[in-house]
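Sample 3 of the quickstart, ligand beta-L-arabinofuranose:
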Amino acid sequence: MDSLTHRPRRFGFFSFPLHAAVGCALLCGACTRKAPTGADPPPTGEPQAEQAKGQEAAGAEKPPADAARRFRNEPLIKSLYTADPSAHVWGGRLYVYPSHDVEAGIAGDDLGSQFAMRDYHVLALDSAAGPARDLGVALELSQVPWAKKQMWAPDAAEKDGKYYLYFPAKDREDVFRIGVAVADRPEGPFKADPEPIHGSFSIDPAVFRDRDGSHYLYFGGIWGGQLQRWKSGSYRKDDEAQPAPSEPALSPQVARLSGDLRSLAEPVRDVVIVDEAGKPLLSGDKERRFFEASFLHVYEGTYYFSYSTGDTHFIVYATGKSPYGPFTYRGRLLEPVLGWTNHHSILEYGGKWYLFYHDAELSGGQTHLRNVKVTELQHQPDGSIVPIDAYLD
Ligand code: FUB
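Result:
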């Protein structure tokens, strides 16, 4: 299927999508696409008036041609808005650590200011098909001494019966850092370390445990994720420039974690993603280059690094022989979803592989009000992944 025929039309980075207007029509039953059931309570903390404000912004637009398409999967939970799902199995049980989206009444911009999340909830699933149950608030912004705002995509790890929540947030100087918080139970409550992880920066932490028990922290995101401000090696507030289109793209970052999982055991290094000729992907190669949402999994001894291409809206993957890379680009694994962002995790459970992802079905297409979903993922005998379309037709 030609992805261009169903790519949602969007206006600026993280800005309000055209689909929001479509959402109004869907909720009125005007289209055939599945709409949130009327019996569901409105998500907590998101006043209807605030949602309507957003819908007016795109109200003048006409629905795109793909508005009548049916979604492949249902939201895992409808009582709150969730995004950026990091799924784990602890003690044989499935948990999801998502972002908790809220309507903060902040206008969308290219830095993602409207993503003004203030806490994390943990979800539990009784089966991979869902639904998910909300286990409550695991960590709040007010409990993190160094953080000022914007609790973005988290991840979690477990070691020796302790649970570790990794999360990005802006510090008092509006610099994104990555923090860690520790709990005795998967659902928290988590207690945050007083300072962010030394040497961390940018967004979207993802923790990978290798077979030898070592843990690696991947992170980074361009544009609102501020990775470009660090390209000189130190933070430059006004340096928003990406490399020239013919230059190598900015790389995601990785470092091995120390044994207590609360600090970096080594200097951060670039995760280099190369093309089939071994050349680093270029900044102008927007359908393949890294944007945000790092994730690493291993399948049959091969390391798969997957990520979002951001402004082209794909989840793509690259493979390598080490958790450090380099990784060779292999292809797309998730086509664009409803909403601007695309963010995922991949997990084996009960002998099958699953992709956890999000879209904005529940809010009718409001990019900053998303919902997590799950679908099965297939590795083929040659190691490639069968690309997933979030729509049925
Ligand atoms: O949820 C806020 C941001 O949107 C995440 O950090 C990105 O990965 C994107 O999903």
